[in-house]
Amino acid sequence: MKKFKKFVALGLSAAMAASALAGCSTTKTTTTEAKTEAKTEAKGDAATEAAAGETKAEETKAAGGSSSSDSMEGAHVFMFKSTGNTFGDLMFEGFNEYMEGEGQKAVYKSPAETTVAAQVQLLDELITQKVASITISTNGDAGYDEVFKKAKEAGIPITSIDSEANPEYRVTHINQAETQDIGSYLVQAAVLITLGVDYPEDGDMKAAVEKELGSYTGDEIKLGVLSASIDTPVQNSWIAAMETELADPVYSGKVSPDLDKKYGNDDLTESTTQAQAFIAENKVDCIISPTTVGIAAAGNSLKSANSEIRLTGLGLPSEMQSFMPKTAEDNAFDYVCPYMMLWDVIHLGAVSAASTLATLDGTFDGKVGSSFTMKAFRDYPEEKYEAYQSGDGTAVLAGTPYIFYKGNMTEWVGKL
Ligand code: RAM
């Protein structure tokens, strides 16, 4: 019964998102693709470094009709972990569109470096400039208390998205999809890919894993993880969920419960170095990269090295198209990444905008049971979101993971 529900959830969400994303701006997609090609198609080290250098130079960027010199007073700030990350850009696209629709001004502000210190410094400046709200994906669990306290005292609400902020200071956390689902699906996909099994048409990867491992007598399968930073809350929660999945007796003696973990700090150059280390050591069968930067860097490295190591994780179809099958006729195993997953990043950003506006008008306080209504957004109808207990704080669930594989890549490449 549970499996059936999961299959339906995956199927429904893919269909929903396909229609929901039909209205994506083509201009944005073209820019994203061009940037991606420049980054991921960079063959030699020099070219890769040049692309990464460009990203670093891009200190902060303001969008939504404002420039960095404009007044920040009254603006709704969206802060990602660092600049140069399409995932962050797409979340902001949704955030900005929803805010603009409500006559509000949104500003994208992210540090060049993926560190707590760099975010704290920016936050401090923005609070002084009297911004209206802060929506943040954090680079770590600790180190924000002082600056978050300053925001609280100034009456500036903090909402976290993607990577959690301290429950004591945030109104709520906008959770992209169930953490355990993401961790479980990633492990299941990595095992099936290692065994050369296509994404099952019925969507039930766990049943396929049970069947395949039941008759598996080969060497113990070893999985690697190429993550963001060692401190990033969201990636660490997914890694913990992967370890929970691996503790299921179905994997016992067949798949190692120990993940070989490396960290590329969501930086193209560092992620490439770590992917190359996996190739040189040749100890893992499949790399799981739960970051869009890491998976694209690993795709490029594995493809260039013609490595036998396979890849899956959380990726943007537009950034992964050179490393994945394109049509149902393709042999998925001719490519380094036969299938992977993500969720509707643009819609996710819009949910956080709706949450923030409801907080500011006093109708949502982030406590368990408190709710807000998000107006119709693109092809999504109006929807109510309710806060639930999550760790020591609360969260709001924005979506579910979708699988990208040879059967639907063509459709997704232009959308996300
Ligand atoms: C990266 C970021 C982000 C993560 C996605 C999947 O862009 O690390 O935190 O959620 O990938």
Distance between the termini: 31 Å
Strand content: 5-15%
Instruction: Assign the CATH class of the largest domain.
Output: Alpha Beta
By helix and strand content, what is the structural category?
Answer: alpha/beta
SSE pattern: HHHEHEHEHEEHHEHEHEHEHEHEEEEEH
- Helical percentage: 40-55%
Count the domains. Answer: 2
Give the low-confidence spans.
Answer: 1-68
Reported CATH architecture of the largest domain? 3-Layer(aba) Sandwich
**CATH fold-type name of the largest domain:** Rossmann fold
- Summed up, the helix count is 14
Ions, cofactors and other bound molecules: alpha-L-rhamnopyranose
Question: What gyration radius follows from the Cα positions, in whole Å?
Answer: 21 Å
What is the number of E strands? 15
CATH level-four homologous superfamily name of the largest domain: Response regulator
Strand order of the largest sheet: 2-1-3-4-5-14-13
InterPro entries: Bact_Solute-Bind_Prot2, Peripla_BP_I, SBP_2_dom
Signal peptide: 1-22
GO molecular function, one term: carbohydrate binding
Biased composition (Basic and acidic residues): 34-46
Can you walk me through this structure?
This is Monosaccharide ABC transporter substrate-binding protein (CUT2 family). The chain is an alpha/beta fold and 416 residues long. It folds into two domains: 225 residues, Rossmann fold, CATH 3.40.50.2300; 164 residues, Response regulator (Rossmann fold, 3-Layer(aba) Sandwich). 43% of the residues lie in helices and 14% in strands. The chain has a seven-stranded mixed sheet, sandwiched between helices. A four-stranded parallel sheet has the order 7-6-8-9, sandwiched between helices. α7 packs across α9. The N terminus is likely disordered. Bound molecules: alpha-L-rhamnopyranose (RAM). Alpha-L-rhamnopyranose binds next to α11.
